[in-house]
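G.,

No rush on this.
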Amino acid sequence: MKYLLFSFCALMGTMFLISSCNKDDETLCTETTWYQDADGDGLGNPDVSFDSCEQPTGYVDNADDDDDVCSGIVDACGVCDGPGETTWYEDADGDGLGNPDVNQDACDQPTGYVENSDDADDTVAGTVYLIDQSYFNSASLISFQTITAPLEDGTTAECFQITFSSNPVESGPFCPTTIDDVAGMGFYDGATNPGLRVFAEALLNDIEADGYDMVNDDGTVNVDNFTGGMPDPSKSYCLEAAPNDNLQLTFIIPAEPKLATSNNEITEIELVGLSLDGVPVNGNPPSAINGPMMGGGGPPGGSDEINFPSVDPCGGHHDPAGYYHWHLVPEVANQVLEANGITEISCTNIAQTTDTHLFGFAKDGYPIYAYADEPTDVDECGGRTAATADYPNGVYHYVASTTVAPNIPKCLKGVAATNAFSYQ
C-alpha cells in the first residue's frame, strides 16, 4: 500500500495541498509514483513502486508492464543486465576533479562526488585572484607570470610579473606650436590664474605675464622633446617628450592584496598602478613652477625660467624615457574637464564610460574603476567595497573622481611590491 503525506499551508488566505518531500530537501516538490522496470523495456511493474521527487535508476513513471521479469540478471541498481553501481570519487575542493583515494559505490551520484579520479590535490580549491590575465589587452601584453617578490613592508609574497609593450594607445596633442594653437593642458601654479589650464593663448599669455619667456617674438612656442640636448636656460619650455615604442614595461603586483598598517599617500609622479592596456598610472604630474629642473633650470634651481610638462586632453604624456603614462583615469576625463570649466579640448582618444568600467589595477593589487556616476560612499583613498560585473560577490576597489584633477586614488590601502615598475 502506498502512503501519501499531505500538509496544508496558509498562503495569502488560500489553502494549497502540497505533497511532502524528504525532510532533508530545502525546497518542496511534488512526488511522483515510480514503477520498477526490471526488464528494461520502458514499461513499469504495477506491483513494485515507490514515491520520490526524482526518478530513481531502474524505474519509470508508468505501470504498463504485465510481465516485468528480467530474462538476464538484475544488477544492484535494479536494472536488468545493468552495469551495477558506479564508483564515485570525492571532490572536496569543488573543482570538478575527484580524489582517487576517497570513493564510494552507489547507483546515483552522491552529493560532493564526481565520476572521475583526476585530482592530484583535493585539499583546497585553486585560489581565485582579483587579477586575471584575461582582463588585459592581449595586443600589448608580452608576458604574465607568477613570482615571489619582496614587498615594501619587508615581507615577501606571491606576485604577478606582467610585461607590456610601450605606448599601446593613441595620444596627444601636447604642446602648441604657436600661440594661436590649442593643444593639451597642464597644472599651472604660477601667480596668474593657477589651476588646470589648457595649453593655448590664454595660458601662454599668463605665463609671459608672470615673467617666463615661453613665447618667442614670432609667436612660436618653445617646446622641448628631450632629443636636442640641454635646452637654453634663458628660456622657458613646454615639455613634450618624444615617444619610444620599443620599450618593455614590467609591473610587479601582489597576487593577493595585503592591507598596510597605514595608508600610502600618493606623492608627485609616484606610480599608482597600470591600466588594462599596460599604461602606467602616476600621481600628480610636475607643475610649472615646481616642475622638472632640467639640470638647473626652473625655480628654485637658480634660473628665472620654467619647464612646464603638458599632458594631452586624456591626461597622459610621455616620460623622458619615451613611454606614455597617465595622470588621469581617462574614461571619465571629459567629466573632469567640464567640472574644471574646460571646454576648448576633450578626450577623444579614449572612449568615455557610460556605466562602470574596470580601468586597471593599483600597485597594491586592488582594482581601479571608472564610474559614469561617481558613487558618494568612497573612503579617504577614493575606494569602496561593492559588487561589479567583474566581481559579482563584491570587491574593494578605487574609484576615479569625475570632478577632481588628477582623479587618481589619493592614497592606497595595500602594500606594494618593492620594485613595482621597471622598463627596458
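When you get to it, here's the other one too:
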Amino acid sequence: MTHAYKVTGMTCGGCEEEVKNSLLMLSGVTAAEVSKEKQTATISMAKHISLSALQNTLGKKFSITVSEPGHHKHAAVISKKEGIMKLAVSATLHCLLGCGIGEVAGMIIATYLGWSMIDSVILAVSLGFVFGFALGIIPLIKKGFSFSRSFKIVLVAEGLSIAVMETFEVLTQAAIPGVMEAGLKDGIFWLGMAAALIVGFIAALPVNYYMIKRGVRHQH
C-alpha cells in the first residue's frame, strides 16, 4: 500500500534526505519518496503504520499529516521510465566508482605482491566492498548521522547492487585467460580490469533500476 502525506519543516536538501532516511528506517516501510519543494512524502508500507508512529520517527523537527484527509492516494514513486533510468545510471556510476577503486587497488596490490588467484580475489572483493560502502557512508556521517545508522542506510539502498557488481567483476576477471596471472606491466591485466568494470556496471544497472522504481535509493 502506498499513501501520500504532507510533511512540513523541510528547508533544505539535507532535511529532505533526513526525512526520507528516517522513514526508511521505520519497520514496515518498504519505500519512501520525499519532496522538499512540495513538502510531501509518498510512503509505501507492507502493513498499516499509524500517523503517530510516523511522527515519532521524524521527531519534533518535522510535522507529518495525511495529504488528503479521509483518502489515501496511490502514487508511483517515479512516473517516467526515463527518469528512473537516469537515476539508475547515476546510482550505478556511483557504485562503480567506489567498487572500481577498491577492486583495482586490490588487484594491483595482490599482483605486485605476487599473491595467488584466490588471495587476489579475496583482497580485491574486500576492498571493493570497503570503498563502495565508504563512498555512501562518509557523506551521511558529515551530515550528522551516526556510523551505525549510516551503514544501515547504505546497506539497504546500495548493498545489493554493490554485491552484484563485485560478483560479476570477479567472474569477468577470472573468465578472461591470462588476467589473473598477468603482471602490472601486461596489457591483458588492464584490459581485464576495464572489461570487469564494464560488465559490473551492466550487471548492477538493472538492480539499481528496480530499487529506484520501488523508491529505495540513496541520494548522493
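Confidence is low (pLDDT under 50) at residues 69-79. The helical segments are 13-24, 51-58, 81-113, 117-142, 147-175, 187-213.

Enjoy the weekend,
O.
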